[in-house]
Amino acid sequence: MRIRLCYHAQIRQAAGVESEEADCAPGADVIEALKDAIARHGHVFHGLVLADDGKIRPSLIVLVNSVPVPHGTRRSLADGDEISVFSAVAGG
Amino acid sequence: MPRLTDEEKAIYEWQMWIDGFGEEGQEKLKGSSALVSRCGGLGGPLCYHLASAGIGRLVLAHGGNLKASDLNRQILMTHDWLGKPRVESARRRLLDLNPRLEIEAIPENVNEANAAELVARADIVFDCAPLFSERFLMNRECVRQRKPMVEAAIFGMEGQVTTIVPGETPCLACIYPEDPPGWRRRFPVLGAIPALAAALAAAEGIKLLLGLGQNLKGTLLYFDARSMSFQRIPVLRRADCPVCGGITAGRA
């Protein structure tokens, strides 16, 4: 199945792209889709997105089709889904 | 509530025409105080909007001396002030705009030693700090003292704004239970972007003080100026939040 990933702030900077389309195995979940993205985008992206325990970092907000995925929950994907990854920022 | 002078009625006439604002709203604003943590790219334009709108008192917390690399975005700073305390440049510029404004200029950033006292001095807090340690510290103090905090943040061409009302909305630690790995004091920034986030945050704070319209409670407003897109992201309280879990709205 085909999904879309949208990256923001530091995640976008580490990925080097604003968004991309990707193929996922049928029944894949958000973490599996992000692990596939890590294989494409390398260790900096990995460190920003997944914690050492393999879970999504709590410093992120992840949406699927504009609906937040609560921390620590598994969210299965369907063909055409869009994952958006936002990070805590500060700045000024 | 303090009454408006004839001069103030003349200055604020046009904003008092806004539905729900009026003379009563202006008097509420005159009687209000705000703590702004750092008056740089975010806090500078935010303070300017609060000052021009007629807030009564500002507490500015910002340490360090002005550097050349501040001048692309920190609009309260002036070239002739390079090497001198940033907060004093901010104070002078704000008083040029609004000499009636009462300002407490603190030449320190928010830290463990001063956070409780600084938050206690204001009705509302605006979080414009570049470091997450300061942001989480102010969040903790605002929750403890039940003070509202408007959160504004940027990265590159993107920004985020939300309004935190302890006991009623998620706090910063609910939204982001940890800071992002590798966050540094240096980040990409074009001055117009924090100025945009600051204008939104100033509007949020003024609305909250006056009870005007709807606030970004439980909503993170995200914008990307590269595509000029805005998105409202719902954010939820966490029952197990170590900062605000279990507390209710109201007085501390």
Structure description:
The complex is a heterodimer of chains A (92) and B (252). With 92 residues, chain A is of the alpha+beta class. Chain A is 28% helix and 26% strand. Chain A has helices spanning 9-15, 30-41, 43-49, and strands spanning 2-7, 19-23, 60-64, 67-68, 82-87. A 5-stranded mixed sheet of chain A has the order 2-1-5-3-4. In chain A, α1 (9-15) packs antiparallel against α3 (43-49) and α2 (30-41) packs antiparallel against α3. The longest helix of chain A has 12 residues, at 30-41. With 252 residues, chain B is an alpha/beta fold. Chain B has one domain: NAD(P)-binding Rossmann-like Domain (Rossmann fold, 3-Layer(aba) Sandwich), CATH 3.40.50. Chain B is built from 9 helices and 8 strands. Chain B has helices at residues 6-11, 13-16, 22-30, 43-53, 86-97, 115-120, 132-145, 172-175, 192-210, and strands spanning 33-37, 57-61, 102-106, 124-127, 149-155, 158-164, 219-224, 229-234. In chain B, α4 runs parallel beside α5 and α4 (43-53) packs across α9. Chain B starts with 5 loop residues before the first helix and ends in an 18-residue tail after the last strand. The chains are: A alpha+beta (92), B alpha/beta (252). Chain A binds chain B through residues 8-10, 13, 18, 47-48, 57-61, 63, 66, 68, 70-71, 86-92, and chain B through 38, 40-43, 128-132, 135, 152-156, 158, 160, 175-183, 187-189, 194, 220, 222, 224, 226, 231, 233-236, 238.
Tell me the strand order in the biggest sheet of chain A: 2-1-5-3-4
> What is the CATH topology classification name of chain A?
Ubiquitin-like (UB roll)
Q: Give the biggest sheet of chain A.
A: 5 strands, mixed
Number of strands of chain A: 5
Shape of chain B: globular
Main interface by residue count: A-B, 24 and 41 residues
Question: What's the number of helices of chain B?
Answer: 9
Strand pairing plus helix content of chain B: what structural class? alpha/beta
Radius of gyration of chain A in whole Å, from Cα? 12 Å
CATH fold name of chain B, please? Rossmann fold
Oligomer: heterodimer
Structural class of chain A: alpha+beta
User: What is the radius of gyration of chain B?
Assistant: 17 Å
Terminal-residue CA separation of chain A: 40 Å
Broad CATH class of chain A: Alpha Beta
Q: Can you tell me the overall shape of chain A? A: globular
